[in-house]
Amino acid sequence: MTTSTTSPKSATRRSRASSEPKSGPRSKPMKAADVRPFIEALAAANPDAESELTYTDAFTLLVAVVLSAQATDASVNRSTPALFAAAPDPAAMAALGTDGIAPYIRTIGLWQSKARHVAALAARLVEAHGGQVPSDRAALEALPGVGRKTANVVLNIAFGEATMAVDTHIFRLGNRTGLAIGRTPRAVEDKLVRRIPPAMLRPAHHWLILHGRYVCRARTPECWRCAGAQWCTYPAKTEPKRSRAA
Ligand code: SF4
């Protein structure tokens, strides 16, 4: 899954530190004409980019995304098969309740509050939405444990909307590459939505997250093997480390 795993606030704090060189010039805005080729290069590097979370429908996607806040997709995927087998739909999840959900997710960070949120959101889906995940942003964001970023992921993946969920990777990437420089996740989101060609916006969510996760890493970007390096404005591009024998 290519969903976000970090809250916007912590993304702001961490990415501000990791997206910029410790000294020297900062990234300039990427030229408008360079946005399309940059995104196309990331797409070509990950043509089949998709979610790395395990889910089967909109409900299990929503739960998995809520569980993935400040946790890795891999840690969520280790827990959710048993949880979803026990509670595959909102009614069953609501019946399981906080105490019933907790044992399944104890290895995921913040599991206590997440158990409460998942139980409450499942109950809300049953009470207010006929057991269905709503496709409306306001209704999604009104669910316990669901903020703008989670709503954007669900709208993008489950309902096909061209949304941009800004997690820690996308926040860092936007600032570091010059693609979308902004001080808050919302500012970066708005710039990405404005700058990325509309037809590319929905899959761009996946391309950017995978690029940030595996190439343009938080601590040290691997610029020497980056498909988008020629358009990226990061002023401190890295080179491969030389071996001792070299
Ligand atoms: S060139 Fe480096 S900083 Fe720029 S996108 Fe690629 S990995 Fe990230």
From TrEMBL:
Species of origin? Endobacter medicaginis
Entries under SMART domains matching the protein:
ENDO3c
Task: Return the EC number.
Answer: 4.2.99.18
Classification via PROSITE patterns = ENDONUCLEASE_III_2 (PS01155)
> What GO biological process terms does the UniProt entry carry, in alphabetical order?
base-excision repair, AP site formation
What is this enzyme's catalytic activity, as reactions? 2'-deoxyribonucleotide-(2'-deoxyribose 5'-phosphate)-2'-deoxyribonucleotide-DNA = a 3'-end 2'-deoxyribonucleotide-(2,3-dehydro-2,3-deoxyribose 5'-phosphate)-DNA + a 5'-end 5'-phospho-2'-deoxyribonucleoside-DNA + H(+)
One Pfam family name is HHH
User: Which EC class heads this enzyme's classification?
Assistant: lyase
Its protein name is Endonuclease III
Residue ranges occupied by any HhH-GPD domain in the UniProt entry: 67-214
Q: Which UniProt keywords apply?
A: 4Fe-4S, DNA damage, DNA repair, DNA-binding, Endonuclease, Glycosidase, Hydrolase, Iron, Iron-sulfur, Lyase, Metal-binding, Nuclease
Q: Which family does it belong to?
A: Belongs to the Nth/MutY family.
* Comp. bias regions, Polar residues: 1-10
Highest taxon above the source species: Bacteria
Q: Name one GO molecular function term.
A: class I DNA-(apurinic or apyrimidinic site) endonuclease activity
List residues binding [4Fe-4S] cluster: C216, C223, C226, C232
